[in-house]
From TrEMBL:
Residues 47-98 form the DNA/pantothenate metabolism flavoprotein C-terminal domain. The lineage of its organism: Eukaryota, Fungi, Dikarya, Ascomycota, Pezizomycotina. SUPFAM superfamilies: CoaB-like (SSF102645). GO terms for biological process: coenzyme A biosynthetic process. This is Phosphopantothenate--cysteine ligase CAB2.
């Protein structure tokens, strides 16, 4: 049996993993865009942050009908990107396709349909139809968001790049980190994306849609009748005619090692997130991650309270610091878009600020 990627040295796991997958089709275009973006900001001596956001998918079939998804709407990433822009960073926003984006997040996935923000003005100059305008109650907030969005666009401060699968995410992360090398200490990595821990290697993935009902024998290759169907096993071990689906996943190599030791520029700052549901594990897991990968900051959050509290785990004092949004500030914005713990602290290069409690 060949060794699992999880048992290999990080550098070996890297070469095995990246050799197994074809590089994403969009990668050359993303690299060209990122290179131009980074050159511009190196020239301006501006700090650049790579914000990753949203969940990765794990396809069950090469021609994918079914996939496993990781929880994340992209609120943390999109909100934090706005804070980074406010603090003068240029932002590469590497996000799950169709997840929340900076600025448009206030309207795109809000409790209102975007049409609810609009109105028709009374017709003028003899016209039958009035212009479409923003409703009165949304004018101020929308003007503010629009100005910030326009400013970021006009000054080329925000680059949007998307991924879907965990493999695409890995290729993009590696490519972006390497391209960011000329930034040196002006580079920051803020890894809020919810990255799957398990995947099916290409070599063991079913090509076609996994069948749940009987397929006549003359349509099947090497099929064995059984009550179970296996995916992630070798093709000839996998009965194609069955009732139960058994999925066999491998661990995704821990690429944070490679980011810290190989891909990211010397002197850059690396911030990762740790998501848990069991409160007794959160601090332990976040601290273990920090010790294992030896980066700069792990931000721990619980699924149920992630919008109101996070814990910063640092290698130096204070080691553990909780930041909580007081109950009175937990309201939704006028658009209905939810806000999150304001991680302005990180964007200022500080850990902890006004709304913290311990
Ligand atoms: C997070 O923990 C993010 O804060 C959330 C944000 C995904 C909870 P939303 O997008 O949610 O605002 O809905 N991200 C990191 C999750 C993750 O996959 N971390 C890995 C782990 O926990 C380490 S890289 O093992």
């Amino acid at each position: 049996m060949s060794p699992s990627l999880g048992d290999m040295e990080p550098a070996e796991a890297e070469s095995v993993y990246f050799n197994e997958y074809p590089s994403p089709k969009a990668l050359p275009k993303h690299e060209a865009l990122a290179r131009a973006f980074i050159d511009l900001h190196v020239e301006a001596n501006r700090r650049v942050v790579l914000v990753t956001s949203g969940g990765t998918t794990v396809p069950l079939e090469a021609q994918t009908v079914r996939f496993i998804d990781n929880f994340s709407a992209g609120t943390r990433g999109a909100t934090s990107a706005e804070y980074f822009l406010e603090q003068g960073y240029a932002v590469i926003f590497l996000h799950r396709q169709y997840s929340l984006l900076p600025y448009s997040r206030h309207y795109s996935h809000s409790t209102n349909c975007f049409l609810d923000f609009l109105d028709e003005a009374p017709p003028s100059n003899g016209s039958m139809d009035g212009s479409i305008i923003v409703r009165n109650e949304y004018q101020n907030q929308m003007r503010d968001v629009l100005r910030k969005y326009r400013y970021a666009k006009k000054n080329n401060l925000l680059l949007l790049l998307s991924f879907t699968t965990v493999a695409e995410y890995m290729f993009e992360l590696r490519a972006m980190a390497k391209l960011m090398n000329p930034l040196g200490p002006n580079a920051l990595f803020y890894l809020a994306a919810a990255v799957s821990d398990f995947f099916i290697p290409c070599s063991r993935m079913a090509e076609h849609k996994i069948q749940s009902s009987e397929i006549p024998a003359n349509f099947r290759d090497n099929a064995v009748d059984s009550d179970e169907i296996y995916t992630g096993e070798n093709e000839n071990q996998a009965p194609r005619n069955s009732k139960k689906l058994v999925i066999n996943l491998d661990p995704v190599p821990k690429f944070l090692h490679r980011l810290v030791d190989g891909w990211a520029p010397d002197g850059s700052m690396i911030v990762s997130f740790k998501l848990e549901t069991d409160p007794t594990l959160l601090v332990y897991k976040a601290r273990t991650a920090l010790q294992t990968y030896a980066h700069h900051l792990v931000i721990g959050n619980m699924l149920s309270t992630r919008k109101w509290e996070v814990v910063f785990i640092t290698p130096d004092e204070p080691y553990e610091r909780w930041i909580r949004v007081p109950k009175t500030r937990r309201s939704k914005s006028i658009s209905g878009a939810e806000d999150q713990v304001g991680l302005a602290e990180i964007t200022k290069g500080k850990v902890g600020q006004a709304n913290e409690t311990s």
